[in-house]
Amino acid sequence: MKEIVEKLSLLNKTISTMESCTGGAIANEITNIEGAGEVLKFSAITYCNEFKIKMGVDRKVIDKYTVYSIETAKEMSKNISNFTNSNYGIGITGQLNTVDKNNPVGEDNIVYISIYNRDKNTYKEETLKVSNKSRKENKAIISLKIEELLLEELL
Predict the structure, then answer these.
(1) Domains of the chain with CATH codes
(2) Which of 74, 135, 141, 146 is the most buried (most CB within 10 A)?
(3) Per residue in 97-134, pLDDT tens?
(4) pTM
């Protein structure tokens, strides 16, 4: 994340995150780097549908595609970017080694990632299959994938 924080700072750009299954891991990775305060505007952990909706995710998208979908991740990334007036928004949703009794749909260990570029009104999307490793290990895998996607976006 050091290179990302430096690049965002150099470009005078900001980022915000709305994370579900990663539980703030991406924001944590960013804030581990000096200078993060210049680029990270806000981070929300929205485990339940109620708070995704309160943060702007359209309930109709969740109802149509489920909470575990790229469409929901896109809603998360765009809405967090708009809510915070950030240049980039990251949205992450999925299930990590668990069955969600409130959302009994979707395949376990599939993670949906969206990076929204507000300046260009574009998305970078990824559906990632993680392993049956621990949640901590899966979060690290997801973080690395997001770093890769962000670096591509910032080039």
Answers:
(1) 2-154 (3.90.950.20)
(2) 146
(3) 665 555 556 666 789 999 999 999 999 999 999 887 78
(4) 0.92
